[in-house]
Amino acid sequence: MRLTTIKLAGFKSFVDPTTLHLTANMTGVVGPNGCGKSNIIDAVRWVMGESAASRLRGDSLTDVIFS
Question: By C-alpha distance, which of 21, 19, 8, 6 is closest to 66?
């Protein structure tokens, strides 16, 4: 399996719909502290079936939904 696109909306810090295109064999996610880099990885883990809130850096699963 290979991810080619990630679409986020309402997940953690991604309140607005955001689309990331992964076009190369290797993709780097860079940016300043607090911009959402780790949240991208958390989103992939969530979609792949991660159900433990602590592994998604939250206290409960409701923490992954932007409020």
Answer: 8
Domain total of the chain = 1
Could you tell me the two tokens for 55? 């592994």
pTM of the predicted model over 0.70: yes
Chain position carrying tokens 């080619």: 4
Token output for 53: 């809130």
Which domain, by its residues, includes 9?
A: 5-64
Is 43 exposed, middle or buried, given 0-12, 13-18 or 19+ CB atoms closer than 10 A?
buried
Structure confidence by residue, pLDDT tens digits, 29-38:
999 998 999 9
Beta bridge partners of 18: 8
